[in-house]
Amino acid sequence: MSTVQCDPQIIVALDYANTKLAREMVVQLDPTRCRLKIGKELFTREGPGFVEELIRGDFEVFLDLKFHDIPNTTAKACQAAAELGIWMVNVHASGGRKMMLAAREAIDHCSHQPLLIAVTVLTSMAQSDLVELGINATPAEQVSRLASLAESSGMDGVVCSPLELSMLRKQWPGSSLVTPGIRPEWSQKGDQVRVMTPAEAVTHGSSYLVIGRPITSAKDPMRALEKIERETALA
Ligand code: C5P
Fold first, then answer.
1. What are phi and psi of 99, to 5 degrees?
2. DSSP for residue 210
3. 35 and which of 60, 101, 127, 150 could share a cystine (Cβ 3.0–4.6 Å)?
4. Which CATH fold topology does 10-230 show?
5. What's the CA gap between 75 and 155, in Å, rounded?
6. Which residues lie across from 191 on neighbouring strands?
7. Are 192 and 181 contacting, i.e. CB atoms less than 8 angstroms apart?
């Protein structure tokens, strides 16, 4: 189990194809200054053993697997994630109230209880994609609706785009808002389009900043992380 005492706001996205590459990054990072996000690619290749290794190394882990299934299956998956000792796990709000309530109940019965976060509308979805799914709402309206559903289904917060922060912070003041799409002014945008700087995101109400390449592609990742810490402290 992790012994991290502080509450670092930066979650470094470990978007690597294998543990060798991921370890080369992790050894450069300080578990008191950041948390780590493991997604579907690395988890599918390397499995829970690597997650446990990170936790033994005192890192807190956001297991970004976005569970979406029938209530019983999602609940069991959340329980399995909690038993790994992770810090945060997520499910798709579009799985519905019964699924989220089942996930909540499963986690509430675990001795170690990670934060349970919902994904609303994927930022890759445009209005036309929603229409194809039979959803006649704008992406913002759908985000707001699914965030309400997530709140009333016992979730701890949502993953959201920086552009949704102001609306969601107003709508759900006590939520954990987890925000990717973060780009410091001094970093490359890469494939991210609608971005905010770390300071702007914090000002708009972000609880946790998911940051990958601005840190992992930096020559000195800890220096990049420190720079972001300084920028957000001023926000
Ligand atoms: O390197 P970068 O900072 O763009 O990494 C962002 C991380 O957040 C990646 O792991 C990406 O998959 C994830 N993410 C995202 N946008 C979303 C949801 C997740 O960039 N809407």
1. -65, -45
2. E
3. 60
4. TIM Barrel (3.20.20)
5. 13
6. none
7. yes
